[in-house]
């Protein structure tokens, strides 16, 4: 959508900086490579302080370091419990090294099938939440039925 694919992290990092500036200051300005604006006011301010959580997704080799440096959580897609456990250990170590409370960084696993054992294995491995995905259906009725089955499977 008009982004610079080769420099997508640089652009994302600037976007995060811009949002934090606008969210946390009465008047903010920013002069970067991708975003540039004079002193402005932005309202309404978010309810969360200092700002809403910034969550980074992805599986790139640098994503965990980027989460520790710029975000409040990580959103991996369809990972195994072993990957969550290993990543949680890395995040905790990197957070401590950076002077951050490891508990300040969440892991929200996305895209899992709604199966009780899988969901609870991910939670036990260190995920803070698991977002299950419904399968494609054609009607609202089918979606309602599927959501009922998902709730029964995951919450039992």
TrEMBL record:
Q: Which GO terms describe its molecular function?
A: alkanesulfonate monooxygenase activity
Q: Which InterPro entries match?
A: Luciferase-like_dom, Luciferase-like_sf, SsuD_RutA_monooxygenase
Carries keyword Metal-binding?
no
Instruction: Enumerate the UniProt keywords alphabetically.
Output: Flavoprotein, FMN, Monooxygenase, Oxidoreductase
Keyword match Flavoprotein: yes
Q: Which residues form a coiled coil?
A: none
Please, one GO biological process term?
Answer: alkanesulfonate catabolic process
What residues does the Luciferase-like domain cover? Answer: 1-111
- Give a Pfam family name: Bac_luciferase
* Protein's name according to its UniProt entry: Luciferase-like domain-containing protein
